[in-house]
């Protein structure tokens, strides 16, 4: 993957670091789960990530130098993909990394005979919603009481994006 400037990177400049993408594996789960625990109020456990690997889900990571900065987990079935998780480490957010990871996910899904990518997002997750909307994801529905919340449950917005190669 591309990019951009050499260190030092600063928050004020908000430049995207040079990223390398590869599948994450069992040895990376501790680092993945550490990011997960810092960015979500209701995080997946390390066991959830091991289960994802065992289930054959596509587990992608992005590294800046040797530091894991982002990951995504995608389940594919027949002609569709479901983005189950995508996150960027707190200190690396707003540097274009989430967009770079989502681009990587979509590019990889486009290399397979898939038509749609789906995901759920909390209506209160402004950063996630804006990211997905900026890529052209559309709201397809609402899943009632989908997520745990501090009081009761929270709905999920169900979004979809057509990833089929465009023909003119
Ligand atoms: C959502 C998340 C992945 C975005 O990653 P990021 O690297 O910070 O995002 P980027 O810097 O690539 O920003 C891409 C676009 O997303 C939107 N965005 C990202 N963070 C935002 C924020 N805090 N507020 C509003 N919009 C935001 C913007 O449209 C932004 O484009 P812009 O910079 O041109 O305005 C990150 O905030 C995160 O990991 N959050 C916790 C986990 C999570 O909620 N994942 C999504 C679950 S469905």
Write the CATH homologous superfamily of the domain at 19-121.
Answer: Gcn5-related N-acetyltransferase (GNAT)
Please give the number of β-strands.
7
Radius of gyration (Å): 16 Å
Measure the end-to-end span. Answer: 27 Å
Biggest sheet architecture: 7 strands, mixed
Q: Quick check: average pLDDT? A: 91
Report on the architecture of this protein.
It is a single chain. This protein has a domain at 19-121: Gcn5-related N-acetyltransferase (GNAT) (Aminopeptidase, 3-Layer(aba) Sandwich), CATH 3.40.630.30. The two termini are 27 Å apart. The chain is built from 4 helices and 7 strands. The model is unreliable at 1-12 (pLDDT under 50). Strands 1-2-3-4-5-7-6 form a 7-stranded mixed β-sheet, with helices on both faces. It has 168 residues and is of the alpha+beta class. The radius of gyration is 16 Å and the shape is globular. It binds coenzyme A (COA). Residues 39, 86-88, 93-99, 121, 125-128, 130-131, 134 line the site of coenzyme A.
Compact overview of the structure:
Helix content is 26%, strand content 35%. It is α+β, with helices and mostly antiparallel strands and 168 residues long.
